[in-house]
Design goal:
Length: 643
C-alpha cells in the first residue's frame, strides 16, 4: 500500500498556475497533461509562451526546427524578442511601484528596488556598457557577490544584446581565468570586497591575476565593503562614476530567438569546465515555465531562495523566472548561519516570504545546529518549499517537512542542471508526496529510465534520459561541439543521456539515485574528479593523485584526495595540498581528507580504481580484485567514520 506523507488540500491545487493552465486547455490531470505535451511538443510550448506572456517584436514562423538533428534543435524560429522586454520592461509598465527586490547584506544593510527603479538602473548601466564599446554579442563577465549591482549587470547585458557569463564569487583566480579565456569576455565586473561570517573577503588579487593574458578590456569595480583599494586607470573604471551621468532610458536590442543570452559554466568529467549556452527565445519560455508551473510563483509572491546567481538555480528563480512572472525576491548576501543560526528564519518572518527555496546542504546545516528557536518566528506566509542542487535525503526531507512546513506545505523537490536550463523532474502543486521524491517529469519533456541497451525499465535503477528536445536545452557547448555530442548524445542515438541514475516507484514517483560519472557534488557545487586530480598533480612535490566523494552530514558529499609524493622521503604534505587546491580551484574544493600512499590502486593497464579507494575508506566490501595490479596498496588505507 502506498505511503503518502503529504496529502494536499484542494485549494493548494486549485489555486495553482499549473491547474489554471490545465483548466484553460480542458485537461483533467497532470498525467493527461504530461501525455499530451509529449505527443504534441509544439502545441505545449506555444501554449506556455502565450500563457507566460512572452513579447515578440516579430512572431516566430515555426515553433520547433529539428532539420539539423535533435541535438541542434531550434525553437521559435524567426521570432525576434529580448527576454528583458518580457520581464522588467513589461512589469515596469504594468506594476511600476511594485518591489522587485529586497537586498540584505550580512552586516544588516537593507535596500530595495521597485520595478521602475530597477528599469532605470539597468538602463543607466546599459548605456554605460555602450559607452565602453560593448556591442551585441560581446561577453560581459560578472564576478560579484549577491548584491544589487550583480542583478543589474545581468539585465543590462541582456538589454543591449551582450552575452553575460556569471562566475561564482568564491572561485579562485585560475577558475576565473579559465572561464574568461574560454568565452573571450570583454568586460569584467567585480567588487571591492565583501563579508562572509564577519570576515573580510578580498577580490582584487584574484581579479588582477585572472585577467592577465585574457581579452578583458575593462574592469568595472563596484564599491561595496571597501576592503580592496583599486585605482582608476585605462583598464579600471568605477561603477558609480560610470553610471553617474548616464541617461536612465535605453532602447532594448531586438534579438533573434536563437541569439545567446548567457553562458554558464558547469564542471565535466574531463576537468575543463563546460560552457553552456542559453538563448533569448527558448530560455524566456523555459524560465517562465519553471517559475510559474513548478514552484507556483506569481505576482503576489515573495521569494527567498539563497541560491547564487553563479548557478542555474539562482539565474532561473532569483532573476529571469522571477522577473518573467512579475514577482518579488529577497536577496541575501551572506552566510546562512551568521551572525546566528536564526538569520534565515528572521528574514523569512520579517519579509513574510511565500516561497522558501533551500539547498539540501543548508537543510543538513540547520538540522545539525538544531534550530530550536525556529518556533519563535512566524512562517505562516509560506506556501511552497522548493529544494534542488543535489539529492535530498529522507532525514532532511522530514526535517524540512516537519520543522519548516509544519506538515502542511509541499516540499517541491526538483532535479535538473545547467545544461537543462532548470529542472526536468519536479514536484508539482496538488501532488501526493513521499519523502525525498523528485516528483514526475516536467510536462513538455519526454523523460525515460533505460538500461544499457536503451530499453525502458521499471522498479529498478536505470539511466535518466530525455527523448525530446525542449526550449531550455543548451545550444551545444561553447567552442566544443564534439564534446557536446560525446557527453550527451553518444550513448543512445538521438537521446539525451544526463548521467544520473533514477528510480520510479509503483505510484510513478521518481527518485534520484546518484551520478553515473565521476563528479563530486559539494553543497550543490559540482566538481569533476579529473579537475581536482589535475590540480593536485600540478603541485611540484606530487607524482600521482586520485579523488573520490565521501558522505558528509553538511555538504552532502565531501572530497577525499589520495596522493603519491615525488620523493618517498617527503612527509606532512597534507596541508600543502589543501592550500594548493584552495588556491587553484577555490575554498569550495577544500578536501575533507588528504591521504598519502606509496602508490594508487591501478589495473594492469594503468587505470586508477577509485571504487576500491572509496570502498576501503568507507569500510564496504571490496568486491572483485582480479584486475588490480597492486592489491597491497589497499592495506595503507584506514577506514574512516562516515560521520
Amino acid at each position: 500500500m502506498s505511503n503518502f506523507e503529504f496529502i494536499p488540500q484542494p485549494e493548494q491545487y486549485q489555486n495553482s498556475n499549473i491547474y489554471q493552465f490545465m483548466k484553460k486547455h480542458n485537461i483533467s490531470s497532470l498525467e493527461e497533461l504530461s501525455e499530451k505535451s509529449k505527443n504534441n511538443l509544439e502545441w505545449f510550448w506555444e501554449s506556455v509562451e502565450k500563457d507566460i506572456g512572452i513579447i515578440w517584436d516579430t512572431p516566430y514562423t515555426k515553433t520547433l526546427d529539428v532539420s539539423n538533428g535533435i541535438p541542434w534543435a531550434k525553437w521559435f524560429v524567426d521570432g525576434k524578442t529580448n527576454l528583458y522586454k518580457s520581464s522588467v520592461e513589461k512589469f515596469t509598465n504594468q506594476t511600476p511601484d511594485k518591489i522587485a527586490y529586497n537586498f540584505i547584506s550580512e552586516d544588516g544593510l537593507e535596500t530595495k528596488l521597485s520595478y521602475v527603479e530597477l528599469n532605470k538602473k539597468v538602463s543607466k548601466l546599459a548605456n554605460a556598457f555602450k559607452s565602453l564599446g560593448v556591442k551585441k554579442g560581446d561577453v560581459v563577465a560578472i564576478y560579484l557577490p549577491m548584491i544589487e549591482e550583480a542583478i543589474i549587470s545581468i539585465l543590462a547585458a541582456a538589454k543591449i544584446g551582450a552575452v553575460q557569463t556569471i562566475v561564482f564569487s568564491g572561485y579562485s583566480s585560475e577558475s576565473l581565468k579559465t572561464r574568461l579565456r574560454d568565452c573571450h569576455a570583454k568586460i569584467l565586473l567585480t567588487s571591492d570586497g565583501f563579508h562572509r561570517k564577519g570576515k573580510d573577503v578580498s577580490q582584487k588579487t584574484i581579479v588582477d591575476n585572472a585577467v592577465m593574458d585574457t581579452d578583458i578590456e575593462k574592469i568595472i569595480v563596484v564599491s561595496y565593503k571597501g576592503i580592496d583599494k583599486f585605482e582608476k586607470s585605462d583598464k579600471i573604471e568605477f561603477y558609480g562614476d560610470l553610471i553617474l551621468n548616464q541617461n536612465d532610458t535605453c532602447n532594448t536590442e531586438i534579438m533573434n530567438s536563437e541569439d545567446p543570452l548567457f553562458i554558464l559554466y558547469t564542471s565535466g568529467t574531463t576537468g575543463k569546465p563546460k560552457g553552456v549556452v542559453h538563448t533569448h527565445g527558448g530560455f524566456s519560455v523555459f524560465a517562465g515555465h519553471q517559475a510559474s508551473y513548478l514552484v507556483n510563483m506569481g505576482k503576489e509572491d515573495r521569494l527567498f531562495w539563497p541560491a547564487d546567481i553563479g548557478w542555474i538555480t539562482g539565474l532561473v528563480w532569483n532573476v529571469y523566472g522571477l522577473l518573467l512572472v512579475g514577482s518579488s525576491a529577497i536577496i541575501y548576501d551572506g552566510a546562512l548561519d551568521f551572525p546566528n543560526s536564526n538569520r534565515v528564519w528572521e528574514i523569512l518572518s520579517k519579509y513574510q516570504a511565500t516561497i522558501f527555496g533551500i539547498s539540501p546542504t543548508a537543510v543538513r546545516l540547520f538540522k545539525k545546529i538544531n534550530s530550536n528557536h525556529l518556533n519563535k518566528y512566524s512562517l505562516d506566509s509560506l506556501q511552497n518549499i522548493p529544494t534542488t542542487g543535489e539529492p535530498l535525503d529522507e532525514d532532511s526531507w522530514w526535517w524540512l517537512f516537519e520543522n519548516v512546513g509544519n506538515k502542511k506545505i509541499p516540499i517541491m523537490n526538483l532535479s535538473g542542471g545547467t545544461e537543462i536550463g532548470g529542472a526536468m523532474l519536479s514536484v508539482f502543486p496538488g501532488m501526493k508526496l513521499k519523502p525525498s521524491t523528485v516528483g514526475i517529469p516536467v510536462p513538455g519533456m519526454d523523460l525515460d529510465i533505460v538500461n544499457d541497451d536503451g530499453d525502458s525499465v521499471r522498479g529498478q535503477n536505470g539511466y535518466l534520459v530525455i527523448k525530446s528536445p525542449w526550449p531550455g536545452m543548451t545550444r551545444g557547448l561553447l567552442n566544443d561541439d564534439q564534446r557536446y555530442i560525446e557527453t550527451y548524445w553518444s550513448k543512445f542515438e538521438n537521446i539525451w543521456f544526463h548521467g544520473d541514475y533514477v528510480l520510479k516507484d509503483e505510484d510513478n514517483l521518481w527518485y534520484m539515485q546518484g551520478r553515473t560519472d565521476d563528479v563530486i557534488n559539494v553543497s550543490g557545487h559540482r566538481m569533476s574528479t579529473a579537475e581536482i586530480e589535475h590540480t593536485v598533480i600540478s603541485h611540484k612535490k606530487i607524482s600521482d593523485a586520485a579523488s573520490i566523494a565521501i558522505p558528509d552530514d553538511i555538504t552532502g558529499e565531501a572530497i577525499a584526495v589520495f596522493f603519491v609524493p615525488e620523493n618517498k622521503g617527503d612527509e606532512d604534505l597534507e596541508n600543502e595540498i589543501i592550500e594548493h587546491i584552495s588556491k587553484k580551484i577555490g575554498k569550495i574544493a577544500k578536501p575533507r581528507l588528504v591521504i598519502q600512499l606509496t602508490d594508487l590502486p591501478k589495473t594492469r593497464t594503468g587505470k586508477i580504481m577509485r571504487r576500491l579507494l572509496k570502498s576501503k575508506i568507507l569500510g564496504k566490501p571490496l568486491g572483485d580484485l582480479s584486475s588490480l595490479e597492486n592489491p597491497n596498496i589497499l592495506n595503507e588505507i584506514q577506514k574512516i567514520d562516515k560521520n
